[in-house]
Amino acid sequence: MELILPEHIIFERGAISKLPEFTEGAVLLVTSKGMLTRGPVDKIKTLLGEIKIFSDVEPEPSMETVEKVKALGADTIIGLGGGSVLDVAKYAAMELNAKKIMIPTTAGTGSEVTHDAVLKVEGKKKGIKNENLLPDVALVDPELTFTMPKKLAACTGIDALAHAVECSESKKSDETTKTLAKEAIDIIKINLKKAIEGDELAKEQMSYASLVAGKAFGNSGTTLAHALSYPLSNQGIPHGEAIAIVLPHAMDFNGTDPALSQEIKSIITETGLGNVEITGTAEELAEVVFPDKRHLDNNPKEVSKEDLINIFKKILE
Ligand SMILES: [Zn+2]
Fold first, then answer.
1. So what CATH class is 8-145?
2. Which of 28, 76, 196, 276 would be a feasible disulfide site paired with 99, CB 3.0-4.6 Å?
3. How many angstroms does the Cα of residue 14 sit away from the middle of ligand 1?
4. Average pLDDT over residues 216-225
């Protein structure tokens, strides 16, 4: 067994204040437009002084955005945002050989501790795994998630839940990642609903659960549900919402423990996510998923193209 994790993982309220301990040379902050007007960017400027800022990371970001970040150059890249921002920051830093410091502002992707990035290549979402994507420092400050709107809290929470469920069943999972995944599932079961309603302690717990799930799936990978979600996200359905739609079907196909499966379905229903229009036929959607061997080869049960078509038929019902 081998666990690959960042050298420093810090989880505490106010963790962002530790930034100056880790930055080196020219610093570039990668974030989203929406984050600019919120507190953390000003806080970072106060802590570090003059730094370059790139704030044009779009949702479901593309490789072209990575190129724009790379063009700015840096010795240290700080990613501040949700999974999209962190993935762009990690990929650009990898190519520039810069130090990677990741600060999540949502509670779901776990990207701050994984060596994965999901980026659009020629308009299609593509998962990339590379040990050089691994952040050097994960600064997880739960206070940064307190301002998340309800829908974002729901989407990211369901994503974290799926990471834990899928990773605990994945072919690559072992006792360590299974234990981490179980811990994350147990915390999310108790806290997601309260976190969506705005309870700060529950949000703090969700932030921790996302981190724990990230440690697990960063090493054991995700499986069928994540594979099924990609063609939905290619149509602009947010990642967590796409996951909410497909996860129940993936659990049915895989024969996930019935009691756990039932609990997870109830949690998903409570979030109210998934009332969206999906375009395309079952055959067309299956066509996109079938080549995704990275996820499908890791699934506990073998998945044929016929299986995918049948699953999508149920999803489209
Ligand atoms: Zn995910």
1. alpha beta
2. 76
3. 26
4. 96
